[in-house]
Each structure stands twice: as structure tokens, then as C-alpha cells.
């Protein structure tokens, strides 16, 4: 088993195509085909299910991919560790929940790119459980989530508390008391979202029971609210970002508890200067 075989296997697994993998790796497709066949022969399993001209990763392939990601991550770490005084470079894979990506991170990402242009950042969004799992599996170098991490492989820092705002269309009238929400349609992210849990707990404290429509998009939620279809609870960062476009009003309640946001990383990765500099920039931006 050779390092180059693992690189080729990961590229094919990620892209689902030997041709696209060959374009990424700048080699001929036949070379990748032959090297993967040798790897399968050595492992004694089929890593891919061949269907016509396409490839689908097999159950054994998915298992092997997890180990491959860890091996390649450790190799990258060792290369970074050999030159600790150089400017951060290479690939940095950062994830974030959508509220953070939209409302809090644009300035940080722009500043990071200006400071460290040699770093090739891959940025993605997802829910907190997905992002946490990808940090554990070494698919992400770090992520911002709004749930206190509990996995033994994860370390974290608190970066900011997110205040929460009830938003409604101006045509909906004022929301001065929790009781004003009685019978109003609510739009929130699906169950598991920490902001949704905060809203549900707040409504229960005030003996209010409303139907909640699950929508996994702040853009869609804002569109529904601005059209007067109902009300939502959003992070203040989202409200600040969109209040100037019109169509929404914000209402603050002192007993709506702010939600802590965290930057997380895999504690088994001891040296990752690009990730460490990103964490430093988060601390600077949010006065941690």
C-alpha cells in the first residue's frame, strides 16, 4: 500500500469518477484505474461497485475511506510540523452552521484571506451534528457550532453568545408580550437546532403551544416572514444582516436566553498552523 494509492482512492471516492480524479491529480485515468485495482487486490475487497461507466463506493470502501482520511490528515500534519516558522499554507477545511456563516463570519473569512493568501480554504455549512462528526472524522479541520461539544475527540473554545430576535412582518403588528404569539404560525429550522429548542422552551414557560413549520434555510424563513405568513426566532447576526432590506421587524425579550457558539477542532491534530491562525482571528474578532 502506497501513499499515492490512498490519494487516488480518496480523489475517486470524493468525486465519484476516475476521469474527474485524474483531472484533479493531473495524471491519466488508466494509471488511477490500475493503482486502485492493485490496492483492492492487496486489501482483498472491492472498494468500488462498478456500474456501467460509473463508480459507487462499496461498504468496504466507505470503511477504508475513514482510515484513509485519518492517514492523509496525519501526513499533512507532519509536513506542517516540519516548518513551524513559515507562513500558514496548504488546505484549511472549515465548517459552520448557516447562522454563523451568514451573520458572523464574512468579515473574518475576508480578513483571513488577506492575512494568509497561501492557505486554500474550503468552507462548508451544515447542522451541528454533521459538522461535529466531520471534525471527529478529520474531514474538517475546525467548525463553528451552537451546541456544547461532548465528544471525547473534540476540543473547543467559546467564541460568542448569540442573542435571539423574534422577527415578523410589519403588517403583523407589535409583539410586545409572549402571549401575542398565541395562534401565530412559526417558521424554524428542523428539530435539533439549538435556536429552535430555545424557542420551544420559551413558549412552554409561557404556556403557549404553536405549530412550527420546519424550514432548513434562513433565506426561505425570511421570505415567509416578510410575506406576512408567520413569525420566526433568528440569531441577532441574521437579523442585523437582513433588517435593512425591509420587510421584517425585530422584537427582543429579556428572558430569551442567548445561545453560546463554539469553535471546535479534533484534539488529536496537534499541529495545524492554518487552523490555529483562524482560531486566533476568531478570538480577536469576538474579543474572546
Characterize the structure shown.
The protein is an alpha/beta fold. 43% of the residues lie in helices and 21% in strands. It has helices at residues 3-15, 18-25, 29-43, 59-81, 98-103, 106-115, 128-136, 194-205, 218-226, 236-242, 273-285; strands spanning 48-51, 54-57, 90-96, 119-125, 142-145, 154-162, 164-168, 186-188, 212-214, 232-235, 249-251, 259-266. Strand 8, helix 8 and strand 9 (212-214) form a beta-alpha-beta unit. It is elongated. The chain starts with a helix and ends with a helix. The mean pLDDT is 91.
Q: Hey, roughly how much beta strand do the residues contain?
A: 15-25%
Rg for CA atoms: 23 Å
Give a short account of the largest sheet. Answer: 5 strands, mixed
CATH topology of the largest domain: D-Maltodextrin-Binding Protein, domain 2
The counted number of beta strands is 12
Strand numbers in spatial order across the main sheet: 4-3-5-12-6
Helix content: 40-55%
**CATH fourth-tier homologous superfamily of the largest domain:** Periplasmic binding protein-like II
The level-1 CATH class of the largest domain = Alpha Beta
The number of helical elements comes to 11
Low-confidence stretches: none
Give the H and E element order: HHHEEHEHHEHEEEEHEHEHEEH
> Can you give the mean pLDDT?
91
**CATH architecture identity of the largest domain:** 3-Layer(aba) Sandwich
| Oligomeric nature of the chains | single chain
Q: Helix- and strand-based class? A: alpha/beta
Overall 3D form? elongated
